[in-house]
From TrEMBL:
Residue intervals passing through the bilayer: none
Protein name (Swiss-Prot/TrEMBL): Protein MEMO1
UniProt similarity note: Belongs to the MEMO1 family.
Superkingdom classification of source: Eukaryota
InterPro entries: MEMO1_fam
Length: 297
């Protein structure tokens, strides 16, 4: 093993968000100042992974619930957009760069996960092509800046898991979720609507198309808040809503279900919802974003 650290570059900086540390810092501060911290400390959050001009304001509502004084490890579960993956994958990197400061991967937890035989190793190219984890790195760095030398990250790329695999990974990760010094970030956008996404579900009773999309998303969000993995799976089967982080969400719900068996009380609350634009006709398209947090009583 060579001593040279493998670094994952901030490949989407300069396009999906600012490559300037000072500019990025100011933007994140602006968005965070607009959000209230109502349900701290979060043990897990769901937040979007689009370009910050679209979803930066929404994501702030989730990150505002993070308590850096108790968080020592940040698990980031993001869906795979570019490579076919039927399991979960770990990064080959040691360091994730951001325009704010570098984040260090927790190699001890990585070694423990690797030992289970349930994980693949992604290539650095796959890692740098994927945006679902990277879009959470600047926000993580910002939320944790007061304790920046005291925490590590555990990035996990989540494949197109079967229900039984979601259960298996949920069970495996539940022991980490039980630890108050761990934070789980679940990376997901909500409905991708329009012909370019091959999804045009419309319930006329809701009025305008964007209202129908909101109704559909909020139905799913309400089901996530119930913390029942089976209800969420059934909702997805029935409506086929294009929630790109459905598998990371499924893993979280299964981890929560596992902990609830031992009597741990948890609550999930969504705090913000937004759409990239308001669809009014069939030529339009939009992506929805939601931010929420899980707390343990």
């Amino acid at each position: 093993m060579s001593n040279r650290a493998v670094c994952r570059e901030a490949s989407h900086a300069g396009s999906w968000y600012s490559a300037s540390g000072s500019q990025l810092n100011a933007q994140l501060e602006g968005w965070l100042s607009q959000a209230q911290s109502t349900i701290r400390p979060a043990r897990a959050i769901i937040a979007p992974h689009a370009g910050y001009t679209y979803c930066g304001a929404c994501a702030a509502y989730a990150y505002k619930q993070v308590d850096p004084s108790i968080t020592r490890r940040v698990f980031i579960l993001g869906p795979s957009h570019h490579v076919p993956l039927s399991r979960c994958a770990l990064s080959p990197a040691d360091i994730y760069r951001t325009p704010l400061y570098d984040l260090r991967i927790d190699q001890k937890v990585y070694a423990d996960l690797w030992k289970t035989g349930l994980f693949e190793r992604m290539t650095l190219q796959t890692d740098e092509d994927e945006h679902s984890i990277e879009m959470h790195l600047p926000y993580t760095a910002k939320a944790m800046e007061s304790h920046k030398d005291e925490f590590s990250i555990v990035p996990v790329l989540v494949g197109a898991l079967s229900e039984s695999k979601e259960q298996e990974y949920g069970k495996l990760l539940s022991k980490y979720l039980a630890d108050p010094s761990n934070l789980f970030i679940i990376s997901s956008d909500f409905c991708h609507w329009g012909q370019r996404f091959r999804y045009t579900y419309y319930d006329e009773s809701q009025g305008e198309i964007y209202r129908s999309i909101e109704h559909l998303d909020k139905m799913g969000m309400g089901i996530i808040e119930q913390l029942d993995p089976m209800s969420f799976t059934n909702y997805l089967k029935k409506y086929r809503n294009t929630i790109c982080g459905r598998h990371p969400i499924g893993v979280l719900l299964n981890a929560v279900a596992e902990l609830r068996k031992s009597g741990l009380e948890m609550n999930f609350t969504f705090l913000n919802y937004a759409q990239s634009s308001e669809c009014r006709n069939w030529q339009d398209s939009s992506v929805s974003y939601a931010a929420g947090a899980l707390i343990v009583h």
